[in-house]
Model the fold of this input.
Amino acid sequence: MLAVVKRVPVGRVTTYGDVASLAGRPRAARAVGNILRAATQPGLPYHRVIAAGGMLGGYSNPALKRALLAAEGLTVSARRVRHFSAVRWP
Done:
């Protein structure tokens, strides 16, 4: 699943469910969240994985997640990524 996260391009987001599906486990969205929460591999764009519907979802520091996404050119409100369908990957 971390290999899928590694492929998410700059300025794009994907959901926990998308990561699960791309990893061959379409019903494992919650497991993706648990794996990402425990992962410590440096350099992975963990912040690009968000909840369904464009919601920011879990992250140890929501303000940091919002700032990282905004730095990549995404428009982010307090709780969601704007224009989600246009920036969703794949």
